[in-house]
Design goal:
The chain is mainly α. The chain is built from 15 helices and 3 strands.
């Protein structure tokens, strides 16, 4: 019964945490018995079971309970199969969504060598706009996961494609994550490539795209500033914040420093 498999998936994370804490007694139980179930249910015929498996996998990754070898040899191959060009549409949408969510939890090498080529392919998926929409909404997170070199070499050309997509929702999603993408690039790329691209979004024919671009204008401009002198920095949750100056902190040593959030990145992009 699908409900039984779904319930089982919901119990996997707490069981895995228990086994992790009791490893001397159960040295390989999770890797031999539980992890294969999670991987198998990623391809279950029932969508609720697959969703429960995806959520369990993300929790396991967040808790650092999945070995690097399992990620590379078991999880990534399944996701690559599910997101292949000839894959079922529903499976493909789910796979690209989980790839984007787990990218920030994996090592840069794993993301760049195993997942980035497929992500670039999915950005150009001409069959499903839902796939391109997920890629656009999470583009800043992928850039942050792979770093400047891979972003400029592989991702920026795809970002240009998405920014000129015929579906206005794609262009809007790009405008919303523009600051996060810009923050990952060099000053020269910001000036010569991203600035003209941003002008095209702020002049878009769709008012929703223009509105999103105007809301990202300040954060995008801030990426040109020198963080040490401007006091601007990116927090772990992807928001642009202002670090209080030493003078402000010293003036009231009992007052905890408060960071002023200016604009969210692409984390919650529609």
């Amino acid at each position: 019964e699908p409900t039984v498999r779904t319930e089982l998936m919901e119990q996997i994370p707490p069981i895995a945490i228990f086994l992790q804490e009791s490893r001397p007694k159960f040295p390989a139980a999770f890797f031999e018995y539980l992890m294969p179930i999670v991987v198998r249910y990623l391809t279950d015929v029932n969508n609720q079971v697959r969703k429960a498996s995806q959520e369990a996998l993300l929790i396991l990754l967040e808790q650092d309970l999945v070995a690097q070898s399992d990620i590379e040899n078991k999880v990534c191959p399944i996701l690559l199969d599910l997101s292949a060009p000839d894959s079922d549409d529903e499976y493909k949408v789910e796979a690209v969504n989980i790839i984007c969510k787990m990218a920030s939890m994996l090592s840069r090498t794993t993301v760049e060598h195993m997942l980035l080529p497929r992500f670039c392919e999915l950005c150009s998926d001409g069959k499903l706009f839902q796939v391109r929409k997920i890629c656009a909404a999470n583009f800043g997170d992928i850039c942050n996961a792979v770093g400047q070199e891979a972003t400029e070499r592989l991702l920026i050309p795809k970002f240009f494609e998405l920014c000129s997509d015929s579906v206005w929702g794609m262009r809007k999603a790009c405008a919303e994550c523009f600051m996060a993408v810009s923050y990952t690039t060099s000053p020269e790329v910001r000036r010569s490539k991203l600035s003209p691209l941003f002008i095209s979004l702020i002049s878009d024919t769709c008012r929703w795209v223009r509105q999103a671009a105007f809301q990202s204008l300040g954060p995008f401009i801030s990426t040109f500033a020198n963080p040490s002198s401007a006091g601007l920095y990116i927090r772990e949750d992807g928001t642009l914040s202002i670090r209080p100056s030493a003078q402000d902190v010293n003036s009231n040593p009992c007052q905890p420093s408060n960071n002023i959030t200016l604009m969210s990145s692409s984390a919650n992009a529609a």
